Amino acid sequence: MTQIDPYLFLLHNGARYRTPIDLQVTPDSRLRFLVIGGCLAQPFHEIAAMINSNFRGDFILLNNFDSFPETLPAEPSQYDFQIIHIPLRSIMGSAYFRLPDDTGRHEEFLRQTQEYLARYLAGVTKLNADSKLPTFVLGFLVPQQNPLGRFQPRYDLRNVMHFIERLNMFLATETAKLENAYLANNLVGKNEKLMLGQLLSTEANSACRRFFSRNGFTPLPNNHLYWSRLLDISLLPPRHISLTVSAGDIPVTIEVPAAF
Prior knowledge:
This protein folds into 2 domains: 19-184, 3-Layer(aba) Sandwich (Rossmann fold), CATH 3.40.50; 194-255, no CATH class. It is 28% helix and 19% strand. The protein contains 7 helices and 10 strands. The chain has helices spanning 6-12, 44-51, 88-91, 103-124, 126-131, 160-176, 206-214, and strands at 31-37, 55-61, 81-85, 135-138, 181-184, 194-198, 218-220, 223-230, 242-244, 253-255. It is globular, with a radius of gyration of 20 Å.
């Protein structure tokens, strides 16, 4: 048996697991993309530029059914694709957690939430409708567990995990109705080695900065708002920070309070 080149093994089993480049003969071409959605998506284009200086992105903040802006940072023809991030709080709010323990009320709330979701999606995909710009719609992160307990019914709308899963199913169906649009659930490749996050410094999250340092995060030399951390070290999060692991092959995602 021929010995496997260690470099190629790491390349194919790490960050390039799904996009191997060992046959690449030309460097990555320049591309420009647009990010539309909630404030949590604001760092996307900045992080992309850190990964590859040939990537350039713009961001448009749309929360709470804001109108699509008439003026864009660039002409639609200058974009190679767009990423749509739908803020869950704009669709679901906190009303879910005030519903009575009644299946019928949860089913009705799901129908209402799906209507909101369809309206929001139609509003933020204007460029796709007008010019068929390639569009990647991000799904919602599913909570790690039911806050009422792990022994509660799993596939019940009264379980917030299943409720959000149903929203993702609906979002996938609505996205499929669009031309040249795709639901992007897996944003982290299998066996990724590095986590990159942004810390917005406020008085409310001063304690969280110690959590970042204590768990192996180090600020990037060129931008101290961004912290990086190897994924092969176990995390020790406090109670107010939860780890979310999807049913697929996404290893770990950090879900933090809105103050971050």
